Amino acid sequence: MIDVHETSQPRRSRRPILWGAAGAALAAAIAAGLLIWKPWADEASFTAALGSASRSPANGAEAGGACTPNAAGKPVVVFDKTGKRKLAEGVASREGERLPASFGDMAGYCFWVDRVEGVPGGQGEYMVQVGEGPMSPMTEKDMRRTAEEQREKLKTFKWSDVKQPGLGE
């Protein structure tokens, strides 16, 4: 004879709780892995295009003609964003283009592009130094722009928008 108590309740299974906890732990591990891996960041090395413009002697060049950049032949070094670790190095361009009147405030300036090969991608921000000059911050996005994009950007440059230290701003 089997004695079954009518008041006994069925024992609840702990499996759903365990599966839920395992699923949450797996989701957290995947999220942490993606944040470390960063598949959306392009970490492949690239050739940086560093566009610059400076006043330089005309050397008889007409607007749109050739000119010699002030930093011609000097080393161009790309550092990490702290400026402590050298990542890549190139040489400043020896020839540029005298910008025409359509460039407004930049008309008559010598525009050139230095190319530095082997810059590791995915860092976001870098420091760039030409010759013995000061280090300047530059974003990866700007370094990946084409020479033509950088040149065209100078058309809208206004000296009046530049804040000069010591002038109360």
Describe the protein's architecture and organization.
The strands form two sheets. The protein has a four-stranded antiparallel sheet with strand order 1-6-5-2. The chain has a four-stranded antiparallel sheet with strand order 4-3-7-8. It is 20% helix and 27% strand. The protein starts with 14 loop residues before the first helix and ends in a 16-residue tail after the last helix. The chain has 169 residues and is of the alpha+beta class. β3 and β4 (86-91) form a beta hairpin. It folds into two domains: 14-39; 46-158, Immunoglobulin-like (Sandwich), CATH 2.60.40.
What separation lies between the terminal Cα atoms? 97 Å
Number of domains: 2
Give the CATH level 1 class of the largest domain.
Answer: Mainly Beta
CATH architecture descriptor text of the largest domain? Sandwich
User: How many separate helices?
Assistant: 3
Order of helices and strands: HEEEEEEEEHH
**Sheet having the most strands:** 4 strands, antiparallel
Q: For the largest beta sheet, what order do the strands appear in spatially?
A: 1-6-5-2
Class based on secondary structure composition and strand pairing: alpha+beta
Low-confidence stretches: none
The total count of strands amounts to: 8
